[in-house]
C-alpha cells in the first residue's frame, strides 16, 4: 500500500479528523437540529417552498459572488474570524425581522459563507481563478452537519461521488462560457444536487426565527454556528484536494480509509 511523507500524512489525518469526527460546533448544531426541524414543519403553509426557493436562489447568488470577487489570488492566511463576525451580524439583523426576512438575508449569509470557504481554499494553495476550485467551494455546502450515528463513516467521499458528475459538467461549462446565466443547464443540475443538502441548513435557520424557545438564541448565533461548521468542512476538504494533486484521488482515498 502507498504511504505518504510524514508531513502530508499528518495533514491527511487532520483532514480526516475534521471530516469524520463531529466537532463541538457540529454536535451543538445536531443537538439543535431536531427542535429546529420540528419548528420548520410548523411554519405557515407555503413557507417551506419559499424557504426551498430561497436556498436555490442563494446558491446561484453565492456562486456569482464567489466567481466575481476573487481578490488577490496569492495564498495567505484565511480571515475566518472576520467572516464569522460578518455572518453573525447579518443573521442578527435578519433575526430581528423574523422568518419573513429569510429570502433577503439568506443570499447575503450564503455569499459570506462561500467567501470564507474560498478564503480557506486560497490559504491551502488552491487557484481561485480555476472553475474547479470555485465549484469545490460550492461542494462544501453539501457536506452537512454530522448527526452522529446517522452520518455514515466515509460520508465525505459519498457526498463527493454523488456530486462528481454535476461538478465536472459545471466546470466544463464555466471554462468555456463563464457564468453566463443562472438558467444554464449544467449549473442548474449542480445547484439542484446541492440544494437539498444545503436546504437542511436553511430550514433550521428559518425555524430558528419561528420557534420562540429556540429563536431566543437569535439569528446571529445560528449563523455563527453554521459558519464555523462550513469553515471546518472547507479546511478538511481543501487539504484533501491539495494532497490529491500530489498523489491522486484513488491513492489518497485508500490511505484515508486505512487511517
Distinctive features:
mainly alpha; 259 residues
Structural description of this entry:
- The chain has 259 residues and is mainly α.
- It has one domain (6-258).
- It has helices at residues 6-20, 24-41, 47-68, 80-96, 102-123, 131-140, 155-177, 185-210, 212-215, 219-247, 249-258.
- Helix 4 (80-96) runs antiparallel to helix 5 (102-123) and helix 5 (102-123) crosses helix 6.
- The longest helix has 29 residues, at 219-247.
Largest sheet: none
Kindly give the count of domains.
1
Spatial shape: globular
Give the low-confidence spans: 145-153, 212-216
Residue fraction in strands: under 5%
Straight-line distance between termini: 12 Å
Blueprint of the fold:
Elements: H1 6-20, H2 24-41, H3 47-68, H4 80-96, H5 102-123, H6 131-140, H7 155-177, H8 185-210, H9 212-215, H10 219-247, H11 249-258
Characterize this entry briefly:
With 259 residues, this protein is mainly α. Helices cover 76% and strands 0% of the residues.
Amino acid at each position: 500500500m502507498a504511504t505518504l511523507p510524514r508531513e502530508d500524512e499528518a495533514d491527511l489525518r487532520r483532514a480526516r479528523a475534521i471530516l469524520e469526527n463531529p466537532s463541538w460546533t457540529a454536535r451543538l448544531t445536531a443537538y439543535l437540529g431536531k427542535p429546529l426541524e420540528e419548528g420548520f414543519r410548523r411554519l405557515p403553509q407555503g413557507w417551506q417552498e419559499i424557504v426551498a426557493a430561497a436556498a436555490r436562489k442563494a446558491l446561484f447568488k453565492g456562486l456569482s459572488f464567489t466567481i466575481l470577487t476573487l481578490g488577490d489570488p496569492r495564498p495567505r492566511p484565511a480571515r475566518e474570524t472576520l467572516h464569522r463576525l460578518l455572518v453573525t451580524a447579518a443573521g442578527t439583523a435578519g433575526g430581528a425581522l423574523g422568518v419573513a426576512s429569510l429570502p433577503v438575508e439568506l443570499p447575503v449569509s450564503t455569499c459570506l459563507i462561500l467567501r470564507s470557504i474560498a478564503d480557506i481554499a486560497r490559504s491551502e494553495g488552491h487557484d481561485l481563478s480555476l472553475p474547479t476550485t470555485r465549484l469545490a467551494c460550492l461542494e462544501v455546502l453539501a457536506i452537512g452537519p454530522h448527526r452522529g450515528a446517522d452520518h455514515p463513516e466515509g460520508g465525505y467521499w459519498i457526498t463527493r461521488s454523488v456530486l462528481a458528475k454535476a461538478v465536472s459538467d459545471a466546470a466544463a461549462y464555466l471554462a468555456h462560457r463563464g457564468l453566463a446565466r443562472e438558467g444554464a443547464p449544467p449549473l442548474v443540475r449542480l445547484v439542484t444536487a446541492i440544494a437539498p443538502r444545503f436546504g437542511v441548513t436553511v430550514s433550521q435557520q428559518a425555524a430558528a426565527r419561528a420557534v420562540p424557545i429556540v429563536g431566543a438564541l437569535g439569528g446571529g448565533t445560528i449563523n455563527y454556528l453554521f459558519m464555523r461548521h462550513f469553515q471546518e468542512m472547507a479546511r478538511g476538504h481543501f487539504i484533501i484536494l491539495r494532497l490529491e494533486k500530489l498523489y491522486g484521488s484513488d491513492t489518497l482515498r485508500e490511505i484515508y480509509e486505512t487511517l
